[in-house]
Design brief:
1% strand, globular
């Protein structure tokens, strides 16, 4: 069953905002490229002459205006034909790399095969070039997709048709809410779906597979050199992911610094594919090669090498090879983690560490050296995510975390590892031990700003059905709201601010506070919070439910198994007179739909009657159009009797549609 948190994070919490930023950056790139061309600077990297630079600039400009697949194929083949014999030089230029990276997906078999052969002859040069390596990554990505396409399960025709209808509907809604279909040059043409669906000959697919394997063997043979090179390192990591069936272009799982955490940011959805068995053997070669290194124990302490190990763990976990995964985790645990489980030397603390001590965090600085290196901490997080439940319980928790959880949870760098530990703990006994160590520390953890640890504890209480009563008591004590009224109780949790603290500015709903309240509503006995929501002033409750973060409380309230039917109907009745105000915002309109579905027939009619009085205000808003279409508000305004018949007919059609597509609810976005 999908949780509310899954719904909020399914496409990234800042998906639309980040997508707009990417388009803006892409436009800026084109604008800057034109400006540099006018002053005689023809891009970074390899020098191009002015005519070739202007040609590539015109191609990049026209790519954003090319919509049809046939037009894209024609442009790709023509441009790559014009650049024949100049591929390496062009790809080593910043502008040329951007153009080739976008075009080559739509190249025909002959053109793409020629490009693969050209790159294969210059692997070493291309891997270590700042711009040509991006082209190599894209070729590797497309070659992998063309190779594995026949191995994927093909959906039935009728499901394809329904998916097309849903896609068209979603596209219309996106245009309504986003104001058009404006695209930037960096993400102009789709690659994943096209490469999987386009028909290619068996001979071409074998050639693409041979290219992937040839590059993988080359990387294995030069691993000692390439893991230290910041551009070749990306190619190595992407190759590992592709060999395991993870189709991810920019290695977003582990990119940046010592690796990026998957708890935030705009991360593309990871696509896992079926791959040939021979690729698993090549991935095994990467693993064996790294395990045999004499300096293996030092790898987690370098940023670049730590990321390689993180990627290897992710790839092996995805390849469903428990023996290799256990082998790598055991070596990491024995030679890297346990070997550095000694108290940090205070004389060797860096300036930032001394600042921590000056701020009164001596307890944190007593942590072993293992927890003072960013690379090892990030690697430990990935290890916690992929290790077997037994290894996590008996090795990682028992030998690394036990009796250190409080200082780790208070540490700015290590609290994410504590979150990973809690998120992947699968047995109640271990969870009770973790809770026992953190008991009484929630106020300190929240004061430090590490609310993710509290959220992880909340989710674990739901997942394992344990410690729920104790957790609520500890949370309310930490926020000093155990005896507070309904509004103070809820706002303290939503703002994650003690009830006895007055903020100088109007506080905003904390994303973790909202998620904690949503999870508490999934507890076996959430009666205290259910009652608080029902007793809260209706106008104040509407303010919360109209908020992008607060609106998802309605999801949890309506869908929780432990919130009774009578409580749902009371909530629908409690908000009567406020639905018109709720519907005036996009998030509030979604809440209106949820409570409409939760209400009885009489309550549903009351909601539509109330919305019909506000139809003039709703008509000019995109979400008002959607709400009107689903609840037939205009029909009710003209003839209530006709509305009753139409809404029943609509419900029958929806039930039939649910049977066809599997009965899954549309996922809401935060």
């Amino acid at each position: 069953m999908d949780t509310v948190e899954d719904e909020q994070s399914s496409v990234g919490k800042q998906h639309h905002k980040n997508r707009a930023k990417k388009r803006k950056r892409a436009k800026k790139f084109l604008h800057n490229a034109k400006g540099f061309g006018r002053i005689g600077s023809f891009g970074r990297g390899e020098d191009l002459d002015q005519s070739q630079y202007n040609y590539l600039l015109s191609i990049l400009d026209s790519m954003g205006k090319t919509e049809g697949t046939e037009e894209r194929q024609l442009m790709a083949n023509n441009v790559l034909g014009q650049l024949e014999g100049k591929e390496i030089r062009t790809s080593s230029n910043q502008l040329g790399s951007r153009v080739l990276e976008n075009l080559l997906t739509y190249a025909d078999e002959e053109t793409f095969a020629r490009l693969m052969d050209t790159l294969a002859e210059h692997f070493r040069v291309v891997c270590c070039d700042s711009f040509a390596s991006h082209v190599l990554q894209r070729v590797l990505y497309v070659a992998m997709l063309r190779t594995v396409a026949p191995l994927q399960e093909q959906p039935e025709q009728e499901h394809d048709e329904k998916a097309a209808e849903l896609k068209e509907s979603a596209e219309k809604k996106r245009k309504l809410t986003a104001g058009g279909d404006e695209r930037g040059p960096k993400d102009i043409w789709p690659s994943f779906t096209y490469s999987l669906q386009e028909p290619y000959s068996d001979e071409h697919r074998r050639a693409c597979g041979a290219f992937v394997e040839r590059l993988a063997k080359f990387l294995v043979n030069n691993l000692e050199e390439f893991v230290w090179n910041c551009t070749a390192n990306y190619v190595v990591r992407q190759c590992m992911l592709h060999l395991s069936g993870i189709a991810e272009m920019k290695v977003a799982l582990v990119g940046g610094g010592a690796g990026t955490r998957d708890s935030g940011g705009d991360k593309e959805t990871v696509k896992r594919l079926v791959v040939p068995e021979s690729w698993s053997k090549l991935l095994h070669s990467f693993n064996l090669h790294l395990l045999e290194w004499p300096q293996f124990a030092d790898l987690p302490f370098g940023n670049l090498t730590s990321i390689v190990l993180q990627t290897l763990l992710q790839a092996i976990a995805n390849s469903n090879d428990p023996f290799q995964l256990e082998q790598l985790c055991t070596k990491l645990h024995t030679e890297c983690f346990l070997a550095n489980l000694v108290e940090a030397n205070n004389d060797e603390m860096d300036e930032s560490a001394n600042q921590y001590t000056a701020a009164g965090k001596q307890e944190e600085m007593k942590l072993p050296q293992l927890f003072h290196c960013e690379g090892t901490v990030r690697l430990l997080e990935v290890c916690l995510s992929v290790a077997s439940p037994e290894f996590l319980r008996e090795k990682l928790f028992a030998e690394l975390f036990r009796e250190r959880l409080k200082p780790l949870a208070l540490s700015r760098a290590c609290n994410f590892a504590v979150q990973k530990l809690i998120d992947h703990t699968a047995d109640k006994d271990t969870m009770e031990t973790i809770f026992g160590e953190l008991e009484g520390s929630l106020e300190s953890i929240l004061r430090r700003g590490h609310s993710g640890v509290v959220l992880a504890l909340t989710n674990a209480c739901v997942r394992l059905s344990c410690q729920q009563g104790k957790f609520i008591k500890q949370l309310l004590d930490a926020l000093h709201c155990g005896d507070a009224g309904s509004e103070k109780l809820l706002t303290a949790v939503l703002y994650l601010m003690p009830a006895n603290v007055t903020s100088a500015t109007a506080p905003k709903i904390h994303i973790h506070g909202s998620l904690i309240l949503q999870a508490i509503l999934e507890f076996n006995k959430p009666i205290k919070f259910v009652t608080a929501l029902l007793e809260m002033n209706a106008e104040r409750l509407v303010e919360i439910l109209r908020d992008p973060r607060g609106s998802f409380i309605a999801n949890a309230f309506v869908r929780s198994r432990f919130v009774g039917e009578k409580s749902r109907e009371k909530m629908v009745r409690h908000l009567e007179g406020q639905y018109g105000q709720l519907a005036l915002t996009s998030h509030g309109s979604r809440v209106v739909e949820l409570f409409y579905e939760a209400g009885n027939p009489a309550q549903r009619e009351n909601i539509v009657r109330e919305l019909s009085d506000s139809s003039a205000q709703l008509s000019g808003k995109p979400w008002g159009f959607i709400l009107n279409k689903r609840l037939l508000i205009d029909t009710y305004k003209r003839d209530p009797a006709r509305w009753k018949v139409a809404i029943k007919s609509d419900a029958k059609v929806e039930r039939m549609f649910d049977k066809i597509v599997g009965g899954k609810k549309r996922k809401a976005q935060a």
